[in-house]
Amino acid sequence: MNLNTKTLLLLILLLGFYSKYSTAVQLNQNGLGEVLVYPYYTVNNDLNTLYSIVNTTDQPKAISVRFQEGEFGYDVLSYHIYLGAYDVWTGALVATESTIAGHVGESSVLHVTSDESCAPFLLKQGQEFLPFMIDLDGAFNDDISRSRDGQLKVIEMGVLTGEAAAAVSQNNGVSDGCVDIVFDWADNGTWDSDALAEPTGGLMGSVTLVNVAEGLALSYDAIALQNFWEQTGIHTEPGSAEPNLSSAFPQSSVLLDNGDLEVADWENGYEAVSAVFMSTYIYNEYVLDSVINGKTEWVISFPTKKYFTLPDSPIMRPFIINWDGRASCHEFERWIFDREEQFEILTVGGVGGPRPVTPVLCYSSNVLEFELPGSLPNRISSGILGSNNFISETTPAVPHATESGWARLSFLNPQFRLSPSNDSPTMQGLPVTGFAVQQFTNAGAAEGLLAQYGSLYMHKSQVLTEEGE
């Protein structure tokens, strides 16, 4: 075999290698992708949620937008937007009271937008969140107030072609042909225009949580996934249950902590998405300094939990407790250090003497609130984000402990394991994401001056693996 032949064979093998990797779902560290995951929205505690979806490409796109309540992850509002090249979609969530039969007067969420982009059937002036999926949990847990915080998922369905592409091209910021797209769906519930081309990505997004009265704004970027589709996307009727995170191509590509790029095959698309979020540990800081009235809360969201914990279904790891209509609780361990390395193991009394406290996270979107020793208030919602789905943790009270520090949450449970269908390593932990929010007040500011500050930091994470048998 001559050198040219060897070189040609090597190139063919490399092309096959990279072709396989190019179809695998993965995080895009630069924030651009076909899918955007927003770990948290809320309208609690006088907060409003402002969000954006940006099409950075020169291609018009069909996009599915899906708001999911924070307990189980049921859809409470889903719609399509058709964005022209370089277009941006923005919206806001505000608190309201439901006017929907069976839920009148319950605390709810109103989606509003002044955006001129094409969003068929969406009431732009004010669209209430809908309780129809929540009603599946029965009368004991069907209050739509559980939709007041949760997650947002955005999925590109494909690139518009032909007349539909021309219809969303904007004239002075307005989609002149949106009525044609609306009619295409309205006449028979089927897309009769030119078929969509395969998705190409290039979406980015952000969220700002705003408390106007307190002069507080907390912002973060959406998490971007690329290679979500193998090729062609799914273009469904607006309001349909699909596409969702289970629609992903069932292969993942994860950059491990040791630098290895691990490609794994899965039976389901949501397992591939879960793989890129798998964490054995998550890390972040807390600030509780009394002089600035420091407050810290962590958002801990499980973007794919509902697919593993469906009621009355077989147990599907890495989760081990199914949703029972009220909760799906999983234990974790936490290690809390102050800034001078002080640490203590929190215990509770009981038969046989003190024993370690084992906290649990029970929902799709959870809030962990940090408190100084002896200052734990008796309330039903967290202090910054106003979440009802929260737990509190007390920081070290050992001598000379400082009021701020850092913490590590551990999901190192032998049952929390995600095993691929090929010979790739099993991943330990749970698919999790989120961030820490901090709020401070300067009591020494000049009279009449509002001195309120806030910050937000995404969690850091680590995943451990073990070789398959």
Major sheet: size, sense and barrel closure? 6 strands, antiparallel
Cα Rg: 24 Å
- Report low-confidence residues grouped into runs of 5 or more: 9-21
Helix content: 10-25%
Class computed from helices, strands and strand pairing: mainly beta
Number of domains: 2
Description:
The chain is mostly beta strands. The protein has two domains: 23-246, no CATH class; 278-466, no CATH class. Helices cover 11% and strands 38% of the residues. It contains five helices and 34 strands. The chain has helices at 3-22, 162-167, 178-188, 269-277, 305-308, and strands spanning 26-27, 35-42, 48-55, 61-69, 75-83, 88-97, 107-112, 127-128, 149-159, 170-171, 174-175, 203-211, 216-221, 223-226, 251-255, 261-265, 278-279, 281-287, 295-301, 330-331, 333-338, 347-348, 355-356, 360-361, 365-371, 390-394, 404-410, 417-418, 426-428, 430-431, 433-441, 452-458, 460-462, 464-466. The strands form ten sheets. A six-stranded antiparallel β-sheet has the order 1-14-2-9-4-5, with no helix packed on it. A six-stranded antiparallel β-sheet has the order 8-7-6-3-12-13, with no helix packed on it. It has a five-stranded mixed β-sheet with strand order 26-25-19-31-32, with no helix packed on it. A hairpin with a 2-residue loop joins strand 10 and strand 11 (174-175). The longest helix is centred in the first third of the chain and has 20 residues, at 3-22. The two termini are 38 Å apart.
